[in-house]
Every structure is written in C-alpha cells, then in structure tokens.
Specification:
By secondary structure, this protein is α+β, with helices and mostly antiparallel strands. The chain folds into two domains: 64 residues, GMP Synthetase, Chain A, domain 3 (2-Layer Sandwich), CATH 3.30.300.30; 67 residues. It has five helices and six strands; from the N terminus they run H-E-E-H-H-E-H-H-E-E-E. The chain has a three-stranded mixed sheet with strand order 1-2-3, covered by helices on one side.
Length: 177
C-alpha cells in the first residue's frame, strides 16, 4: 500500500486548524468576551483590552479622569471570578499625565515608597494630602484593597493612575553572586 503525501498533509492541516480554531473560539466566547463586557461596562472605562495568560489576566485600560480603579478591580475580581480563577490581575493603564503630574509624583514617590515598605498605609494618605496643599490645581486621592494601593492624580484633562502592589517583590539570588 502506497501512502499519498498530499491527502495526509491536507488532513493534518485541517485537523490542526479545527483544534486550534476551536480552542480560540472557545476561549473568545467563554472567557475573553464576558470579561471584556464586565470591564467595558464599568463607569469611567473608555476602552479595555484583555489578555488571558495561564498565570495572570492583563487588563489594558484607557480610563476617564474620574474612574474608580479600586472599584473596577473589585468588580472584575467578583464578577469575573469563574473566568479569572487563581490567576492574578495585572493592570496596564494608559498614561494621560502631564509634566506637572509627573513632577508631583516624583516628589511624593519617596515618602509613599517608605510608607509602603513600612506597611504604614495611612502615611500614604497624609503624604498625598500634604502634597495637594503644596501644589494647587492638582487633585489627588488614594484607595486601597487587599492587594494594591491606588493613587489617582488629575489636573484638568491630564490624569495619572498609580497602582502599587501591597506585597513587595521578593529578591531572589543574584546571578553574579
């Protein structure tokens, strides 16, 4: 019996397309679309793209200045729990800041980092309030949940969202040590 190469190759390609296409459609319909719907319907979200990876869900967000990021994360974790499962949620927020907001954040960064390191989260709020008094025209507020500290800075149409993880990154073994 002589095997013909063309029908074997065509059958293999069709089987691969059917398997991978089926997986893509399943993932899109049962995971990606429902999560995108949850995120895009939240007030203050201009646009959202979601990338579901094996160990994390990445939310690429474009937010309006008044958006409540802590509330968004809470809604995503609650309503999206069947989809997210044990994955971590990572936020990537479009930066619409200006030089004044960047300067404000660079001045506040050290006291905020110190408060984060010492786990004295109330100092973050007092630092932000103190910095607001120094710079007129800049609005700032803070929020916190079990995994992140959220800081929102705005001045006119410019907005900067800062998400600080409450768990500091563990330092591993240095490769050159």
């Amino acid at each position: 019996m002589k095997l013909r190469a063309v029908p074997i190759v065509v059958a293999a390609v069709l089987a691969a397309l059917l398997l991978f296409g089926g997986w893509f459609i399943y993932r899109q319909v049962t995971m990606q679309s429902p999560l995108e719907k949850i995120v895009s319907q939240y007030p203050g979200v201009t646009s959202a793209q979601i990338d579901i990876k094996p160990d994390q869900v990445v939310l690429n967000l474009d937010l309006k200045p008044q958006a409540d990021i802590a509330g968004l994360v809470n809604v995503v974790k609650q309503k999206g729990q069947p989809i997210i499962g044990s994955r971590t949620v990572k936020l990537e927020i479009a930066d619409h800041s200006n030089p004044a907001l960047n300067q404000w954040w660079s001045e506040a960064m050290f006291p905020v980092a110190e408060a984060m390191e010492n786990k004295k989260y109330t100092q973050i709020t007092s630092t932000v309030e103190l910095m607001k008094k120094k710079k007129s025209g800049i609005e700032a507020d803070t929020d916190m949940d079990s995994s992140n500290v959220y800081i929102r800075l705005s001045e006119g149409k410019a907005t900067k969202f800062i998400v600080l993880p409450r768990q500091s990154q563990q330092m591993g073994v240095w490769p050159n040590a």
